[in-house]
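User: Show me a protein chain along with its predicted structure.
Assistant: Here is one chain, sequence first, then C-alpha cells.
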Amino acid sequence: MRKIFILVATAAALTVAACNTVSGVGQDAAAAGNAVTTAAEDAKH
C-alpha cells in the first residue's frame, strides 16, 4: 500500500510540473501572437 501511495504522489508531482511547463509555453505563445497582431494592426494604419 505504501508503494502505491509513493507512486501516486510521484505521478501527481510530475503532472503538476508538466502543467506549469505547458502553461508557461502557452503564455509565451500568446505573447508572441499578441505582438504579431499589434504589428499587423500598426501596418494597416
